[in-house]
Amino acid sequence: MQKGEADVLKVGVIGASGYTGEEIVKILAAHTGVKVTVLQAIVENEVPISKIFPHLEGKIDLVCKKPNLKKAGESADLFFLALPHTVSMSIAPGFLKEGKSVIDLSADYRLGVEEYEKWYGVKHKDTPNIKKAVYGLPELFRDKIKKAKLIANPGCYPTGAALAIIPLVKAGLADVNTIIVDAKSGATGAGRKAHISLSFSEVDENMKAYKIDEHQHKPEISMVIEKIAGKSPNVVFVPHLVPLNRGILSTVYMDLEKETNDVKINQIYKDFYKKEPFVRVMDEGGLPALRDVQYTNFCNIGTKVTGKKVIVVSCIDNLLKGAAGQAVQNMNIMCGFAEDEGL
Amino acid sequence: MQKGEADVLKVGVIGASGYTGEEIVKILAAHTGVKVTVLQAIVENEVPISKIFPHLEGKIDLVCKKPNLKKAGESADLFFLALPHTVSMSIAPGFLKEGKSVIDLSADYRLGVEEYEKWYGVKHKDTPNIKKAVYGLPELFRDKIKKAKLIANPGCYPTGAALAIIPLVKAGLADVNTIIVDAKSGATGAGRKAHISLSFSEVDENMKAYKIDEHQHKPEISMVIEKIAGKSPNVVFVPHLVPLNRGILSTVYMDLEKETNDVKINQIYKDFYKKEPFVRVMDEGGLPALRDVQYTNFCNIGTKVTGKKVIVVSCIDNLLKGAAGQAVQNMNIMCGFAEDEGL
Amino acid sequence: MQKGEADVLKVGVIGASGYTGEEIVKILAAHTGVKVTVLQAIVENEVPISKIFPHLEGKIDLVCKKPNLKKAGESADLFFLALPHTVSMSIAPGFLKEGKSVIDLSADYRLGVEEYEKWYGVKHKDTPNIKKAVYGLPELFRDKIKKAKLIANPGCYPTGAALAIIPLVKAGLADVNTIIVDAKSGATGAGRKAHISLSFSEVDENMKAYKIDEHQHKPEISMVIEKIAGKSPNVVFVPHLVPLNRGILSTVYMDLEKETNDVKINQIYKDFYKKEPFVRVMDEGGLPALRDVQYTNFCNIGTKVTGKKVIVVSCIDNLLKGAAGQAVQNMNIMCGFAEDEGL
Amino acid sequence: MQKGEADVLKVGVIGASGYTGEEIVKILAAHTGVKVTVLQAIVENEVPISKIFPHLEGKIDLVCKKPNLKKAGESADLFFLALPHTVSMSIAPGFLKEGKSVIDLSADYRLGVEEYEKWYGVKHKDTPNIKKAVYGLPELFRDKIKKAKLIANPGCYPTGAALAIIPLVKAGLADVNTIIVDAKSGATGAGRKAHISLSFSEVDENMKAYKIDEHQHKPEISMVIEKIAGKSPNVVFVPHLVPLNRGILSTVYMDLEKETNDVKINQIYKDFYKKEPFVRVMDEGGLPALRDVQYTNFCNIGTKVTGKKVIVVSCIDNLLKGAAGQAVQNMNIMCGFAEDEGL
Fold this sequence. Notes:
Mean pLDDT of chain A: 94
Radius of gyration of chain A: 20 Å
Oligomer: homotetramer
Number of helices of chain A: 12
Largest interface: A-D, 41 and 41 residues
Shape of chain A: globular
Helix content of chain A: 25-40%
Number of strands of chain A: 15
Strand order of the largest sheet of chain A: 10-11-9-12-15-14-13
Distance between the termini of chain A: 20 Å
């Protein structure tokens, strides 16, 4: 999709009241190429979005309406769906049929039908569009994203893990049957919901592993690796909840296919990402800190060789590179904006 | 109530699954004079309490049952009610009629009928017992507590505020129409519930004032002051939520009735509390930190004179001196145990 | 100072390695009207600033040099001094003599000589320039700022307090002898230093009041009030350290000169700030949360009347509206940029 | 060592002013079998320990003196050395020569001479006593601890890792060349020091991996495994700093020597620890949370099999089971107290 001469792109956000929706709106409000014309969410009262998120006051004063897809379709050309899994697939087809572009931040279009139904426990309602969807990881699929009408925006854990894994697999150096992803996420990763296990008093000063090998992001990580390795990998994925708000630090362990050293591995990563606007590889010996990527769309990466293993540490802000930021990055690519516009 | 020769007191906890209940059970499990024989709460499954709170494993393995007051009454002689406001008043009368002792941690027996109904918005269902209830602040009412059958255990904010205010009022030095309580509380003060405003992502790194002059602990603070001043005071109470788990720091401002100095005021506080096992007054010039009282039943206090005003800072652990610890302190006084047993 | 046609303003930051310096550089890097040409700080090695603050990588790659004022003066026209108190006054005169503009973020030019020497405990070395300095609170002194060559950028606590106090004093409704400022600050307020009392293990989950009536921001708050009230006020100032990174919430208590109500007071604040780009007054009944201003240059304010008192709550990000953001706002005003450029 | 009839054991703490010293003193103050007679540390002024740690007021009021080993030796029979690495080895020999018992919490007696000198970068000054030292992990070496005069109290990371690894190695099921320890520690693990990297503003909301494969606890973990496996293992150790105060969560990955399942592995762990007073193995499917062990001497463990790998998660409080608590547990074993006395 190309925006017209002199025109500003009209965009809508469906699901604007969650953490991800909030971030998308915040970015778009400062984006020079678009105009937000639709905000919808399940809200009690239809009030300006700045009443829900006071930091938006003076930046955007559009009213956040209750869901009405017909009206939405009349008012915008591209839609971000910041909706729970299993909801997007009921909504995307309508927009697509009208020729709109859709960037879906749920998991509904990321996996094949079979995997999806196995891991999400529901029947998929829009199988035709799964095949048309492009997995929105620009570092791997930029060319396809340019031409896409439907983007399956990657999950937060898969983004951090994939960016740490891809270069070594591409270089043919990773034994893809030995990949361990030990990921640590802040609390916004779980979304904006009322649940005792997410209450401050439970999360603060606490830490735990959860859903070992049962987390729905595991098949997504495997799917990305398979696309580049050409064969099904064996991934162990252990997510942890840590007491902070934003960010994921992933520590990835991979067996090397042949001996090498720190300098060479670091160079492979530097080369792979050298033109990427949002991936920074630390100098050899350096390790990233979450702080350096929070509130940004960057992924910072450090590498370390120890014996036959490579350890790669990646950091992202789960709400930006892991969700809203990457979604806007995808929009920028789709629509011909500068890739870092607004980011 | 006196515990029998050679006997161990049998106690029950109704509402054992909240933060306060958890703390009471933890303290009682290590108390040498009592045996916990009843644990009840609204739970999905009746499991050992150590399945709900794993840190209790090996310390107490009693099953936490669904509420059944008849059975409870058959098995214990003293009950802690760690229940929401408006629930206790339906439950306490039954236990009292059977001759049991009750320590109620809700607000149901703290205020007069009129004040209660005004601030809690419900009709009081057990007015006869309100008059028999003793307000369980040992530093003021120890003698009455000794003989009580029903204790209205003080609220967390009122405990911190009252201990900061009382000595100056008792000394006739406070203008009770000028009292400001600026209180900062951690998140467990709100109890164990699922609510977005209490979720980690909302509370972490955040801070806010709330319910200015509308918090139901305001009349409780006034009530305590009135009891010692003999007249109705004018209290401004501003509670704040701060991003930590346990504790309340109260900064209290009072106009002096006559000029004085730091040394004299500090001495008044030291004298007032010198025999108290759980109140420590800092040396003149010293200010308390929350850290020094967390996980203890202590209240630490610092004083400072500036012009015509006194500033008093008090720190308590809201779950201990502000709830469960004070409740056990009251039990110890009622039952003739050493006042600091288990604490 | 007016920037020339077609020109970009060349600016320098002296003291670029602290928290405040970091924020200034971050803002300036995205500012469309300036070019950062000088970065200096006491650093061990002269490396690109993005090696010190990795999040700046790709945004600015200027080397942060060791202090050399002569070289600095040759390369820029306006300087931000993000230096400790007592250091700025040795450095500003040189720049001023060369005709440069200076925005000093230390306290060196905020107070009169006598007050300064009393509260900071050192002799002032640049008394002539004190009188020329303009106190950089745009909401009060915008017109003077426009023509200033030397800005005394306000302290963080005074900014939050003053914005909460000014409208009531201006309206003639505040008894300026009754002002209490109970302020709660995050840890970055203390700057970037190694001190046990600022270590994570001491600050986390902790809270304390400190320097009651002895904090050097007390005379600064009084000075601002005196400027608008025309007489010396009596201010009680109690700062607290709370366990979060960024932000100050100030709860201000003032006696009213005459009876009024919530609606009127709220309207007075709304009217006073209605044209201000960086102050938002909540609707009557609303209270600000720190979250809504973090990472922004905004000050959010809520008001509440109770009996004869007004309570005003203000929130700012101490590093932005309380330091770097306000400094850039001042530069924008001095240099004729849009006041919110870069902010 | 057996405490005498009717006697109470006299103990001293050298290095009482750090986090570990603080915890030891706190535990000993409530221990029924000992009397603390010596407190020494590098302090500016010799004041009661409760002036340094206000929460100890009323519990112990011994003065904390400047170091004087001669005086110390005259006043106690058993010493805890809560000292930095490389200091203990200068102090322990003196006490041992006088027949005192020593529990050293530094690393000075944990490793062989060669390993020690390699990892700690200094010459060992007391090699004769290295061989006499018993590694104080009760779950492995209880019988030797009973007879020991010198205990090398384990490091915090090695305690958490070893307790997770040992049962599988003992069962002959672990390929000891495939062990990965991904450990996440709170900030008190670094001790009580002033360092910018440990300041609140740097640690809060942040996270990072550090010293990958270069941490001095790596050889200690290997040493423990070698003692039970009979051969040198290959351990990858990646420590992380997370924003909380107390606790280490270790996620350990090990390849299985033969296929098995969740039930069997969980049973192996349950059997191995069934008599241990301070290790709790979660039921199959369960995972520990840090919260459940904080402020206790417990280690909680969960197990999970996935394909050919076992994942074991362990949680400890780094200051208790990882330091002071385990030290007192060792004293209890050495001196014939109940193993959980004071804990």
